[in-house]
Design brief:
Elements lengths: L1 E5 L3 E7 L2 E6 L2 E5 L4 E7 L3 E11 L5 E12 L2 H6 L4 H18 L3 H6 L1 H16 L4 E12 L2 H43 L1 H18 L11 H13 L1
Antiparallel strand pairs: 1-4, 2-3, 2-5, 6-7, 7-8
Length: 234
Amino acid sequence: MVVIVINEYERGLRFTLGRYSGILGPGVSLNLPFIHYTQVVDLRTKTVKVPTQEIMTRDNVPLKINIVVYYRLASPEKSVLEIADVDYAVLQYSQTAMRDIIGKNEMDHVLSDRDRIANQIEEIVDKELSGWGVDVSAIKIQDVEMPEDMKRAMARQAEGERIRRSTIILAEGELLAAENYAKAAKTLYASEGALYLRTLQTLTTNVSAEDAPTNIVLLPAELMKIAEHFLGKK
């Protein structure tokens, strides 16, 4: 007798004299030599990394893309009885579906909407492999590499956009400052003492910023008005 130990995450496909005779669950099983043969399969989720492929998009941009496929064996007997190498089948179908979907999309869509592209690839692969007992749980786009000249062009475009935005922000700031200056000038002109106080503040600030001593003679505002009156007559 041959003792077979099957783990919790495994299943055993028993063949009796070459014919499939059932599935063995977790635990210990006995095989009769030359009569029984048991093939143990793993039911845990597996990952297959599809090698980087250069694919031409709909707008004729060559992109280098690779994806990762997550799948498990939902039906162990189908994955053994109906296909010789399930891992190789997953790899080939994923590669073919990736080329098909990427080729139908433009570069901007591939770069900006990876999840949607990956879901479309997953739907195709899962549909094709479900008949072989394979359940594709997820497909993720890992890397997307653009040509160097395209990268430089996009970098220049991004730089131009940043300059445009900074110019707009600066212009808006200048406009706001001009409006505030106009409001301040109108307020100072409407008040007799406000303009004089503002003049004193400006003189004080400028003098304090200079190193050399400066003598300033301040005249009352009334004398300034009298001087303006006589100068105006002349």
